[in-house]
Each structure stands twice: as structure tokens, then as C-alpha cells.
Design a protein that fits this description.
By secondary structure, the protein is an alpha/beta fold. It contains eleven helices and eight strands. The protein folds into two domains: about 5-175, NAD(P)-binding Rossmann-like Domain (Rossmann fold, 3-Layer(aba) Sandwich), CATH 3.40.50; about 185-255, N-(1-d-carboxylethyl)-l-norvaline Dehydrogenase, domain 2 (Orthogonal Bundle).
């Protein structure tokens, strides 16, 4: 990776292009494999826009769109990151191609948010170089990235990729075992289960749940993660509160009623114009602009913390 400053990103969707922007912003050459050429212009524009958001200067002559992995000049590539849709068979097919084409020693990573790398790489011969590299949307703005060791992954490969992420000003989160949901999504879904349960029970509206997180405890998490925050407040206080609250928390093992009802009615959120909120094209554009603006401000705060 140190000698070959070229990354292969397999998939030209939102995650793939934002991950490509991370490499491009660091001065790397980036090859994006996107089989649908009609999407190339949109993919290129998103990469350039994301680089601009990071404060970098977009460089078009270091960004290439390819129709297939077979078109890549593998002798120049230092790492490949798979970002195709969340379909296990498709990911396994891609990794089969990558193993066949990529020279030995090139880390092969998956950005999957749900499938363990052990399942994606199952049956392949060079599984020791395959790992999970899970970015959070929007990938170029959220600093954290999970570096996930599968059952056959060489820990040294994970350490090398983690060091590379640090060079890109990312914060690697080491996950020693690729259990479902990895680390961050398990914590996030535990919170979401309780949030939806409160809506199901009529205890709170979607707006009040969001307000409780955004303007309550969520604000503190920018300054301190949940464990550090409890260390600061006093573990004995958390222990006492846990004894009272834990018995009453949701423990359902299926998605909530409120969520299931909206899925059945095909109310998926912004993409369909309605979810828990109503969405017009104008409202979507306004909210996305606000969201990016807040993330950029938060990123600046975190950067100033790291630079001290």
C-alpha cells in the first residue's frame, strides 16, 4: 500500500463514491468499478463534490471509471474496497473476482454493514488478506471506520489498513470478531430498539425521540463516548440507574410495530416522500444541506481536538 497509491473501489454508489473521495483527498489515484456507464458522470461529480467538502482540491485526472474489475491495472493498486449493494451472493462473486485478479499481498476489504467478512470470503484461498472496512454514511465526513477481522484474517493486515486510515485522518475502530452488526451498529440498534418501542407504546412521538437524542444525551457524545461519559459522571450512579431501568427496557427480537407498518405501506422515508416524517423535494434538499452543515461543523470540532 505504501508504494502503490492507487485504490480500487468496487461500486459507484453513494458509499463507493464517498469512500473514493477519502482516497482522492489524500492524493491517491482512484479507480471506481461501476458496470453501468450511464452512472459514471453522477459518480464522478459526487466524488469531486465530496473532496470539496473535505476542503481538498478535486483532481479529475486521478479519478477513473471502469466497467469491470478486469479493466484495472492491478500491478499499481494498493488496496481494493468492495462497496456493492448488500447482497451476499453478489459480494461473494465480487470477492471471487478480486482474489483471482489481485496480486498477493493486496488487502481486499468489504464495506458491508451487515454481512461478516467470514461469510463473504467463505471458500476462498487467500482469506487471510480479506477484512471488513465499514465506513459510516456519509463516509467522507464521519471520522470513524470499523476495521474488522474475520475468522481467517491476518491481524497484521488489519493493523496495516488501520494505519492507512489514520494517515487519511480517519479514526479506526478495531473489531476483533465479525459478529452480526460488528460494534457500532450493535450499539446503534440497541438504542433504536428502545426508541421504536417508546413510539409503539405511545410514550413518545418520533419528533420527541429525535429531540431527546439531538438536544439531550446525544450532544454529549461528541465530547465523550458512552463509557468515558459514565466514568466522568460516576460509575456507581450508572450502576444504580441501570438496576432500576434495565428491567423495563425493550427486549423484543423482531422490528417494532411502527416500523413494520410503514414498511408494509412502502413508506420508506425520504426516498418515497413519507416515513415518520413527510418529505417534499424542497424539504429533502433543505434537510440534507442542514445535515451536511452540522456534520462539517462537528468534524471541525473533532479535528481541533485531535490537533491539540
Amino acid at each position: 500500500m505504501k508504494d502503490n497509491h492507487c485504490a480500487a473501489i468496487i461500486g459507484g454508489g453513494i458509499m463507493g463514491t464517498d469512500i473514493a473521495a477519502i482516497f482522492a483527498n489524500a492524493g491517491w489515484t482512484v479507480d471506481i468499478v461501476e458496470p453501468f456507464s450511464e452512472r459514471w458522470t453522477q459518480s464522478e461529480q459526487r466524488v469531486l463534490h465530496s473532496v470539496e467538502q473535505l476542503g481538498g482540491t478535486p483532481v479529475r485526472d486521478k479519478l477513473f471509471l471502469r466497467a469491470s474489475t478486469g479493466e484495472l491495472e492491478w500491478q499499481h493498486i494498493g488496496i481494493a474496497v468492495e462497496c456493492v449493494p448488500e447482497n451476499l451472493m453478489l459480494k461473494q462473486q465480487v470477492f471471487g473476482e478480486l482474489e483471482r485478479l489481485a496480486p498477493a499481498g493486496i488487502p481486499l476489504a468489504s464495506n458491508s454493514s451487515s454481512f461478516p467478512i467470514s461469510e463473504i470470503s467463505k471458500g476462498l484461498k487467500t482469506r487471510e488478506r480479506m477484512l471488513g472496512l465499514h465506513f459510516f454514511m456519509p463516509a467522507h465526513l464521519v471520522p470513524g471506520v470499523e476495521v474488522i477481522c474475520g475468522e481467517a484474517t491476518d491481524p497484521g493486515v488489519c493493523r496495516r489498513v488501520a494505519e492507512l486510515m489514520k494517515l487519511f485522518c480517519k479514526v479506526p475502530i478495531m473489531v476483533k470478531k465479525d459478529i452480526p452488526g460488528f460494534l457500532a451498529n450493535r450499539i446503534q440498534h440497541a438504542m433504536m430498539r428502545e426508541a421504536f418501542a417508546l413510539i409503539d407504546s405511545g410514550m413518545a412521538s418520533a419528533e420527541d425521540v429525535d429531540a431527546a437524542v439531538m438536544y439531550g444525551f446525544g450532544l454529549r457524545y461528541l465530547a465523550a463516548g458512552p463509557i468515558l461519559q459514565k466514568d466522568m459522571a460516576g460509575l456507581e450512579l450508572h450502576y444504580a440507574a441501570a438496576q432500576t431501568i434495565y428491567p423495563h427496557l425493550a427486549d423484543n427480537n423482531v422490528p417494532s410495530k411502527a416500523l413494520a407498518e410503514r414498511i408494509a405501506e412502502r413508506k420508506y422515508g425520504m426516498k418515497t416522500g413519507e416515513g415518520f416524517y413527510q418529505w417534499t423535494p424542497q424539504a429533502i434538499a433543505k434537510e440534507k444541506a442542514r445535515y451536511d452543515r452540522v456534520l462539517l461543523a462537528a468534524l471541525a470540532i473533532l479535528k481541533s481536538e485531535r490537533d491539540e
